[in-house]
Amino acid sequence: MEPTQSARRGPRRSLAVLAGLLAAAVALGIAELAAAVVGPESSPVVAVGDAVITLTPEAVKNFAITTFGQNDKFALVVGTLIVVALYSLAVGLVSLRSRRAGALGIAVFGFVGFVAAATRPAGGLLDGLPSLVGAVAGVVALLRLIDLLPDAVPGPRDEVLGGGDRQGAELDRRRFFVTTGIAVGVAVLAGAGGKLLQLRFDVAALRDELTLPRAASPAAALPPGADLSTKVQGLTPLFTADRDFYRVDTAITVPQIRPADYRLSLTGMFDFPRSYTLSDLMGRRDLIERDITITCVSNEIGGGLAGTARWIGVPLGTLLRENGVRSGSDQLVCRSVDGMTIGAPTRSALEVDDAMLAFGMNGEPLPVEHGFPVRMLIPGLYGYVSACKWLTRIQATTYDAFDAYWVQRQWSAAGPIKVASRIDTPADQRSFPPGRRAIAGVAWAQTRGIARVEVKVDGEDWRDAELSPEVDADIWRQWLLPYDFRAGTHTVTVRAMTADGERQTGDQVDPFPDGASGWHSIHVTAR
Fold first, then answer.
1. 434-461 pLDDT, tens per residue?
2. Quick check: helix, strand or coil at residue 92?
3. How far apart, in Å, are the Cα atoms of 191 and each of 28, 81, 266?
4. In whole angstroms, what is the distance from residue 313 CA to residue 214 CA?
5. How far apart are CA 516 and CA 509, in angstroms?
6. pTM, whole model, 2 decimals?
7. pLDDT, tens digit, 9 for 90 and up, residues 59-77
8. How many angstroms separate the CA atoms of 128 and 110, rounded?
């Protein structure tokens, strides 16, 4: 039986779908190549991803952080590419009916990328150029592929009555697949080449050439036995290695700032506004080195979005005073090179002794992904109101005059870190033989310090845990409680108390809008 006209056109629709997908791939590949000239942040995938982050409701962002952790940006990029792929499939089908409509669909794709790139806080018209160039290439690829589609797949009757038609269709199909191969090659080579060429913006090698100066005020010497993790397997180390340090920000592509080009500007309510080079900051004689634990406001109870490092930098309060920050300023709007704004309380910047503009972390220049060359740190405040990375401007102003990025999204303007404690070992839902086993973890309350940690197993009384030697109020304390587990299922809970007498509340509160609270509990089985 000869195929129906509808059945014979089915493969043509499939080829049109393929044409749409390849046109999008060509557009993205060429755009990546153009981004190698303009800058990695001008890539349409990056620009659209940034726009999605900006427009996404906070509840969805929190879900993404909780679900994907520090892989949330990778998940966003993958999701963006999936949406682009689905959109391109539809464009291919539409092109069967109207070449003009298909071309318009690709043009809309480019326009969205252009607007997303050009309207970024640190963007401009030039940043939108890769999206436009990519869209032009995508339109050319789509129209060429659609032109080569045969009108229909010939059936047996066509072979008898119109052998020439069949030969023409076969020729068109061969041309189509040859052009398909060319499109694939262009997409792959342009995309991979663009990514490779974008490495010229990478500043890792320049970072490695820097040598940190010696601090005039070094960190306090650690007492003997300061790190309990050397004797308790599974306990978080006192210091977090750079590779393990949490990273939560909105930057899909990590900003790259050449040390020689770096400038930090002080503007707004200063008597003596000025700018500093990286050499100016690193060459100061009042540099401090401190051990500080920092925490993300998105950290869930028992979560891992906290870390400790040895930081070196310029004392923030001193820098602000010598430039005459005015008494009327109650907010410092800190701006990143990518346009992110962080609103920090001026009072904390002036009064917290260890607040600093850090350029060193764990004995080396800041890692690029953690803010190189300069970031701000104010112990006792969550990062969203204190830890601006890739810092290029500090504007002294007021809370009435400006709402920073997170405040615009309904997070609290004030972000003091809440007292917190966490069980590291044993792990939740773990099974092990009955008998003595260490229960251990960390607790923190920056600027106040931890004076006591208590642990409860099932319905027993709270027991005091052993604390690691006190180092500084700004660094977390490890704790340890050896416990004899009987056979059965057990619930283990921890709470902490600060040096000024505040006991960690058991009231469970989500991170939004000013940080999570509650006791961390785990469930284990001894058998």
1. 999 999 999 999 999 999 999 999 999 9
2. helix
3. 7, 14, 39
4. 10
5. 5
6. 0.87
7. 777 777 777 777 778 888 8
8. 9
